[in-house]
Design a protein that fits this description.
The chain has 18 helices and 23 strands. Bound molecules: glycyl-adenosine-5'-phosphate (GAP).
């Protein structure tokens, strides 16, 4: 990560703590690695993101319904889904630093550095030549070509080793590339071992293997095992979808980068059941829809891109990520996967229960194919928070930190601020608050100078401040101060409810999709 982005990321993390968005879990005991708590403002923002996703799925699509399945599931679920046998990451330890890494990520990091080298060559050349043609340069420059060839070869070897589970080959690649521990610089590595990411515990009073159950590593399986329950009770016709928001748990080997990779996190997943053979058209449909959902938020279209999976999971016949430009660069925000009939077929096999759909149009039974959209709620939170965070120098030489969170997602929509604590202004302000609080989330404050109060609201992303002054008592008008422009306008109290409710409604964003 370049220094500037590194600093920005550190500032975002510090800001999130200082203003009640995110705290390290059980901080008084020095925290718990890769586990976080959401504070008073974080919980509101998180709930608003959930609402935006939930309404998009279940209100804008008449053929999608939502469920809320339990975290604990019958242990055979995870045998059938492949998680017991194959939900592994390859881990490697450095004997000198005693640090643990994901072997595939060490190699990917090496590839990223080679890619950066290519980009630097390209940038240098672009500065040198006026009529610079990138494609032409890349295809003729020897150093760039050599590096690109090397990247392709490493990728091929990585793919083979991961695909076949060949841990020796993975270690050999690390040795051949002379990859060193980023902290100690040492190349003294252990063998690579597979590490299962599922957390387990015991159910009931007997702590033996027969009572072993898992904390779900994805919410999707709660949807698959309920597929027929929902289809029958909801009289759903294919194509249809089941959506769910809930906690998932993964014992990540390397969990860092704040809430980007956590051990306890939340997913928002939707499984869309389709007729076999029609999955690719629905896969394209959901790619487009999900990208529109992201873009409607207005965080900047250039901050999103698709990244196709070259290395397909055993259950998928197509898969891609929507990547977001986080402070540490473009990273996976959401996955869109065409999962074939893998999960339902295996649950049918392991449970011995039929999980088929009777298609009245074709007069036949079949196991539907599934297209899944899966987004991490915490990653979405980080995307919104990091892009909203801005440090600004103002015309008068002062500085402010502002969170330009899209108004419908902001923790508080309106701050109600009497100019002074006397002359009946607080009473008038409370009167306004008592009317508005049924429509938008309000925050009341009368302490400190008005400028200081505005800055505090900027820092938690409140899009509107309503100020009650002496003129208010005479003509029933107030000023609305806009967070992004800092402009103020005088409006009638009567107009507040309609204007502010409309401006802060999630429907406003949904209509753009
Ligand atoms: N059901 C499919 C599935 O779980 P995934 O790519 O493993 O697919 C989906 O996860 C999304 O969940 C990711 O795109 C990411 O946003 C989020 N996610 C996965 N692991 C995470 C972690 N350790 N911390 C935070 N979010 C995570």
């Amino acid at each position: 990560m370049a220094n500037q982005e590194d600093n920005l990321f550190k500032n975002v993390i510090a800001h999130a703590k200082e203003y009640g968005f995110i705290f390290p879990s059980s901080e008084i005991y020095d925290g718990l690695s890769a586990v976080y708590d959401y504070g008073q403002n974080g919980a509101e923002l998180k709930n608003n993101i959930k609402e935006y996703w939930w309404k998009f799925m279940t209100m804008l699509h008449e053929n999608i319904v939502g469920i809320d399945a339990a975290i604990f599931m019958h242990p055979t679920t995870w045998k059938a889904s492949g998680h017991v046998d194959a939900f592994n990451d390859p881990m490697i330890d450095n004997k000198d630093s005693k640090k643990r890494y994901r072997a595939d990520q060490l190699i990917e990091g090496y590839i990223e550095k080679l890619e950066e080298k290519i980009e630097k060559e390209v940038e240098k050349a672009a500065k040198r030549f006026e009529n610079f043609d990138r494609a032409m340069f890349v295809s003729t420059n020897v150093r760039v070509l050599e590096n690109q060839k090397k990247i392709d070869e490493i990728n091929e070897k990585l793919k083979d080793a991961m695909g076949s589970g060949n841990m020796e080959a993975l270690k050999q690649l690390i040795i051949d590339l002379e990859i060193a521990d980023p902290i100690s610089g040492s190349r003294n590595w252990t063998d690579v071992r597979q590490f299962n990411l599922m957390f387990s515990t015991e159910m009931g009073s007997l702590a033996d293997d027969t009572n072993k159950i898992y904390l779900r590593p994805e919410t999707a399986q709660g949807i698959f095992v309920n597929f027929l329950n929902v289809q029958k009770t909801g009289r759903m016709k294919i194509p249809f979808g089941i959506a769910q928001i809930g906690k998932a748990f993964r014992n990540e080997i390397v969990a860092r980068q704040f809430i980007f990779r956590m051990r306890e996190f939340e997913q928002m997943e939707m499984q869309f059941f389709v007729k076999p053979g029609e999955e690719m058209q629905w896969y394209e449909f959901w790619k487009e829809k999900r990208m529109k959902w992201h873009n409607a938020l207005g965080l900047g279209e250039a901050n999103y891109r698709f990244h196709d999976h070259l290395n397909l999971a055993h259950y998928a016949n197509a898969a891609c990520d929507i990547q977001f430009n986080f402070p540490m660069g473009f990273r996976e925000l959401e996955g869109i996967h065409s999962r074939t009939d893998f999960d339902l077929k295996n649950h049918e096999k392991y449970s011995g229960k039929k999980l088929q759909y009777f298609d009245p149009e074709d007069n036949q039974n079949y196991i539907p194919y599934v297209v899944e959209t899966s987004i991490g709620l915490d990653r979405m939170f980080l995307a919104v928070l990091s892009k909203s965070y801005q440090e600004e120098k103002l015309a008068d030489g002062s500085e402010r930190v502002v969170l330009r969170i899209p108004a419908p997602l902001a923790p508080n929509k309106v701050a109600i601020l009497p100019l002074t604590k006397k002359d009946g202004l607080p009473e008038k302000a409370m009167e306004i608050m008592n009317e508005l609080k049924f429509h938008v989330r309000c925050f009341y404050e009368e302490k400190d100078a008005i400028g200081k109060r505005y800055r505090r609201q900027d820092a938690i992303g409140t899009p509107y401040c309503v100020t009650i002054d002496h003129q208010t008592l005479q003509d029933n008008t107030v000023t609305i101060r806009h967070r992004d422009t800092m402009e103020q306008e005088r409006v009638a109290i009567d107009s507040l409810k309609t204007t502010l409710t409309e401006a802060c409604s999630i429907n406003n964003i949904l209509k753009r999709i």
